[in-house]
Amino acid sequence: MDLRHGKVFPSALLLLKLWITLLLNPGISRAASVDYDGWKVLEVYLETVSDDVIPPTLIKLEDMEAEGYLALLSVSKVKGTAEVTVSPEALEDLTKMQDDGLITFDIISDNLGKILESETRQQQQRKVLRSSITFDSYMSYNDMTSYLESLEAEYPNKVRVKEVGKSVEMRPIYLVRLTNNIGDNTEKNVVFIDGGIHAREWVSPHSALYIIKNLLSASKFTENTEWQIIPMLNPDGYVYTWESNRMWRKNRASFSTCHGVDLNRNFGYKWGGLGTSNNPCSDIYKGPSAFSEPESQALRDAMLPLAGKVKAYITFHSYGQYIIYPWGYSTQVTHPQTATMNQAGKVMARKIKRQTGAVYRVGNSAVSYYPAAGASDDWTSHEMKVTYVYTIELRDTGSYGFIIPANQILPTVKDAWTAAKYMGKLVERKYT
Ligand code: 0X9
Ligand code: ZN
Question: What's the pTM?
Fold first, then answer.
């Protein structure tokens, strides 16, 4: 079947049927607690389109996702695929669509619910001491918070922990500052890192915490550079993934129809452009206005006073194993620092490969994924004039996606630490 031309999507009758299914089977983005038993993960093939055109199949998948009919997990332009998870009922309809030549997909995982069950079992076996962190099982929001709240007292010469905002549900958003002799207030170059923008991407905040932990004992990286790290930008979303819906992505802002703004569509550069949605039920909802959300405001307000000092910015996401750089809002506008970011990104990927064996692809984010406007990387690049700006999509490449097993946390956070160390060294070499 050729998906490039002609009709890709279902007849009016089929759409009507999807709606009825939906009414009988309320959407995952609206449900209070979601059971994924029997849900399959599909790899859907996307049409090849010219630059800055979003493939019709992807647009349709996004619409179906906003209708609560499936959950979109990831997209890759390089692979020409989107991964989605669907309920057994929805699969029947998608299979009909496939039979009618309207869509092409493979089933890549048979039961998401079983994978989630085994994650829950692993979690139940863990025991954590307060104020310690672990990378052999996932930490809860409380584990992370107690660790962060203990740091300043334990490392008074090196650490300051500041609340830079509160989430929609009034949880604190912490910024950790790390440098040698922090009390001296010496002006130093800053490497800025965040994690946890997207709730379900659990390896992201773990990576930021692993970097903090390692910086505490590696004083050569904190001699001439100050690290500013927000490990958990979306605490409400993270808690929600633990308590109600493991696949939740957005924050927990409340709207009349649905919950949540995609914080990585809420930043104030090219806000509302390509790859964003006006619909609060969509996973890529841009929010009512740029920086409408306290979480994106917290990142903005923590960074703005550092104008001229921030030399590198890494925002950790998952999954896919990509190191991507701006502009993400369009493939048509080439960033003036493209060569510099590409070259350093490639060195970073080589170092990760050497350290841990993992292969990360390097490229422009609109090209590697699809254009998506209003993300934190583009804003930082544009507003803060930072040269080295990266979104790092951590492990894996799709076998487990967001639910990567606990025994892969450590290798994944090591990828992140290798990337961060390299950024630290580069900033020191170029700017000190
Ligand atoms: O879509 C996103 O926000 C990021 N991917 S994720 O799967 N973690 O959701 C990629 C953002 C890349 N940056 C820009 N498009 N500006
Ligand atoms: Zn993400």
Answer: 0.91
